[in-house]
Amino acid sequence: METDTDQEQMQDSQHGTEYEREPVPQKSWLGFKSFIGMYAGEHCAGTELMIGPLFVAAGVSAFDLIIGLIVGNALAVLSWMFLCAPIATRVRLTLYYQLEKICGRRLVTLYNLTNGVMFCFLAGAMVTVSATALGVWFKFDMPGLNDMYPNSIGWVVAVLICGSLIAIVAAYGYKTVAKFANIASPWMVLVFLVFGIVGLKQFIDVTGTEVNSLGDIWKLANESIWKGGAPQEGQVKFTIWHVTFFAWFCNMAMHIGMSDLSVFRYAKKSWYSIASASGMYVGHFMAWISASILYAYQLHLNPTDTDVLPGPLAYRAAGLVGLLCVIIAGWTTANPTIYRAGLAFQAIIPKVSRFKVTLATGMIATIAGMFPAFAMKLLDFVAIYGMLLMPMGAVIFVDFWLIKKFGLQSNYAQISGKLFNWAAGLAWFITLGTCLLLVKFAGIQIYFVSLPGWFVAAVLYIVISKLYQQKIRSVE
Amino acid sequence: MRTIIKITGYLGIIILILPSILFLTGKMELDSVKTVMIVATIIWFGASIIQVWDLDKKLLDKQDK
Question: Which of A35, A279, A448, A462 has an alpha carbon 20 to 30 Å from A69's alpha carbon atom?
Fold first, then answer.
């Protein structure tokens, strides 16, 4: 149970109640175990139940999925280990304070606004997932794979009920839910595993496959579960490259984008970031594969039933416990997401109480959740989310490791007293503009564009800093 | 008492996963799997909540001292 207390401490830190503007002191550093539990729990969320099926809808093949996930998740872990954690354990500051020192308060406010809005939409997708469980009980029309707008009164009411409850609880008692999430986490991981085991057996039975070796299961996976071929209507075809880059970049905001500086500032050693592998290979490997098996089974039974609805999928495999898992997975992950979004907004309007801001944020997330587009297009949304925040990760990386080698000043906003470091701001805006142009005119898909984008941001920050810092010096 | 609750919690986790393995090997029906999972869920959450209460109480006692 010691781990629970550690996790609460870390959650406090992420939510800005501890060591907001000072390095974490040595007495508060945490051991390796705390990070394993935290990552395994946080990355086994309600949205995993959408992502797995969407891979199948994108026509992924067995080899592309398995190898793509192994490689992509490994790259994500390496990004935490070599980009984020070494800085986190050296400066031991929150992302926001580190950014403020580099970029100035006004630019951080803009970053907070962007982050808060994206958190709102992400929480909306989590509310959508939870609401699909209510559809199993109340039998209202639920959205289809290509639906963008709410398609029935029942759906709107279900999302409104789910979202409002989540918002009220997040505003009133964030800590209680966080505690409950810690309890639910191991249970949820195992229910996800059950989804996969039950789905596999259902496939074995329905196809009449005789399983005598692993080779037989691999054959079944290739021929019946992840068959490859054309994607569902309205979906992008996923190859091994798509899966690899998606797995790598779906948490881009956290590793390359440096959001988890706030987490690893508590780590005794930088290598503790390898604990992120627990989240990647439990949540983004096992859980995605399990959820995708359930959807593939639904398609196998009825190829015209393309709806991606976690509630009915989970209910078919695990009954009441499956439904409970969908609700809890959506709830426990939407709760901190709404809370974090609320904190991001509160930083912009500090005079309004945290309660009111969190409640309002939860209601925005609820309205977003009514629009199935955020959940049904989750693969694209997650890629955009990572891309939006990635340039600031590049700015932090360059500012910490490289900028002094070019004869420039790191933590420039703090030293110069500037409220808006234009070098960082322009590096951010121009990188996003470049990424959008690459997607629109160069035919690079949104899943890949963040890789060149990171280098563009890094180079831009150095070049513009060279001009900007000189200009400031000459004016001074 | 604390140890018994801890063991009960772990037992809940084993009971949660075991039926699906039995289903995979063809030794259990899916409906029974679903029922046993409900029981396992109650055991896990029951034991975990008691443990958290106990921990909170211990922390409060420590603060009082």
Answer: A35
CA distance A61 to A225: 8
pTM: 0.92
With CB atoms and an 8 Å threshold, state whether A198 touches B23.
Answer: yes
> Which of B2, B22, B38, B41 to probe the A interface (max A CBs under 10 A)?
B41
DSSP of A275-339? GHHHHHHIIIIIIHHHHHHHHHHHHHH-TT-----HHHHHHHHHHHHHHHHHHHHHHHHHHHHHH
- Helix pair angle (A450-475, A422-441), 10° resolution: 150
pLDDT value at position A12? 55
Interface touch B52/A5, C-beta < 8 Å? no
pLDDT of residue A2: 37
Residues B7-61: tens digit of each pLDDT: 999 999 999 999 999 999 999 999 999 999 999 999 999 999 999 888 888 878 8
Tally of structural domains, chain B: 1
CA–CA min distance A14, chain B (Å)? 21
Count CA atoms closer than 13 A to A234's CA, side-chain side: 12
* In contact, A361 and A340? CB cutoff 8 Å: no
Q: Residue A61 pairs with which residues in a beta bridge?
A: A227
**Cβ-contact A263, A95 below 8 angstroms:** no
Q: What is residue A1's predicted lDDT score, i.e. its pLDDT?
A: 34
What φ, ψ does residue A30 adopt, rounded to 5°?
Answer: -115, 160
CA distance B20 to chain A (A): 6
- Residues of chain A where predicted confidence (pLDDT) is lower than 70: 1-18, 173-174, 471-476
From chain B, the residues in CB contact with A1 under 8 A are 51-52, 55
**Cα of A329 to nearest chain B Cα, Å:** 14
**Residue A227, helix vs strand vs coil:** strand
Q: How far is CA A219 from CA A285, A382, A438, in A?
A: 20, 31, 39
Residue A469 to chain B, least CA–CA distance (Å): 52
ipTM: 0.94
CB contact under 8 A, A321 and B41: yes
Q: Show the domain range for B60.
A: 2-64
- Residue A245 tokens read as 């880059």
Best of A3, A5, A189, A197 to disrupt the B interface (most B CBs within 10 Å) is: A197
d(CA A310, CA A316): 10
- The CATH number of A2-382 is which of 3.40.50.1220, 3.10.50.40, 1.10.4160.10, 1.10.3720.10? 1.10.4160.10
- Give whole-number Cα distances, B56 to A144, A296, B49, in Å: 45, 44, 10
Contact B37 A319 (CB under 8 A): yes
Residue at token pair 């999430």: A181
